[in-house]
Amino acid sequence: MKIEICVGTTCHLMGSSTIIEALEEMEKKYRDKVNVKYTTCFELCHGQMKPPIIKIDNKFYENINPEKIKSIVINKIGNE
Amino acid sequence: MISSVIYKKSLNKFGEEVCGDNFQLSKTSDSKIAVLSDGLGSGIKASILSILTTEIISTMFKKGVEVEEIYHTIAKTLPVCKIRGIAYSTFSIVQVFKDGKIKIVNYDNPTPIVIRDGDLYWPKYQKKVINGKAVFISNFYLDPDDFVFVFSDGIVHAGLGNMMDFGWGIENISAYVKRLYRRTRDIKYMVDNLVELTKSYYGSQPGDDSSVVGFKITEEPTAIIFTGPPLDPKQDKYFVDKFMESEGKKIICGGTTSNIVSRIIDEEIEINFNINSKSDIPPYGSMKGVDLVTEGVLTLKGLNRLLSKCKNNLFEIDIEDKNLDASEKMFITLRDCDEITMLVGRKVNVFYHNPALPFDMSIRSNLIRDIKTNLTRLGKEVKVVYC
To answer: By CA distance, what is A50's nearest residue in B?
Structure first.
């Protein structure tokens, strides 16, 4: 699973760094299956989506916080 | 084009409030002139002698006056010491031209050390006798990543009669500098280290004013910072081309701006993945053909904060090479540059006007103005181009 975290100005201000911390805190069986990368602005924050925005396997997710990212990862990997 | 990064550090003689060594840096349209002078004795008297010497030399050298004439002027104008009956101060002049030529004039200071390709390089000096005193002059060409170190005799005499019979000596110092070069290429670290060691050879009580001036020769003394998307998207390509064609270091500041450049030159942006960073500034990255890619306003704000901390030059704050954040990385990149161009896009990011943002996001133009003021104050030539 490929997770791209935006580290642009607005996403950073709205807490994108907490997402990476949340992913690091997760159990090893989940951590091993995710491939995390930082990226520049997705340019979706101009009224379309609410930052922090992340992209998981080519799908965008908005307004992410540590709890949300954990549940997304657990759900996705659980289904695989 | 060649330029140099110059850093100087001095120790006062033990118990003295002022340093009897003086250093002055001046610029002409095609060169940088650095003068280090050591006044006779120590304290205020020595300080005045050396300040007069550097001031006279810098002014005359800039106007293109010959060394003989400068020396005569100094000999005639310096006040005479009442006790010793002589007017005396030693000096070294180093002039680095933009085409790579270097001129060293040395009068009674220890022989400067030149490091080339990790080895010691001793240029040929031409001896000129003026008023019965020998002045050594050398002209040669420098390559990027060469280093030149100029000393006052306090450094060479460190340890004299205390730890060593004849003092540290230029041979030992040059061997030490060579070892330092293997460890780092950071001019500030090298000079600080030499001065610190001198201090310990003196047992923390320097017997003379001691100064080291280090020169690191750099190839790309210019930098261009592209920040903010151009007002008219139709002009994106024009400005990206202009940015990519420019000489020197290339820095992109801003997510949207880096996306534009990435799209036009068809290269991917790689953001460094450093989860150990404790900085509140977003991470930075790079792209093929571009030296540094960072986030926009927050990084510029951080840069301006660092610049505001410096009073006279960019070496006043210590930055650890490890775990640099984006602002520090940019600060270090700009430290080696003489001329900085800022290509500033005027397109407004609507999201920044959101009152829900956690702190004041001052608009880019104010930040650019402050950064320009600070960089100019710190001796850089700054040009701002709006697009």
So the answer is: B351
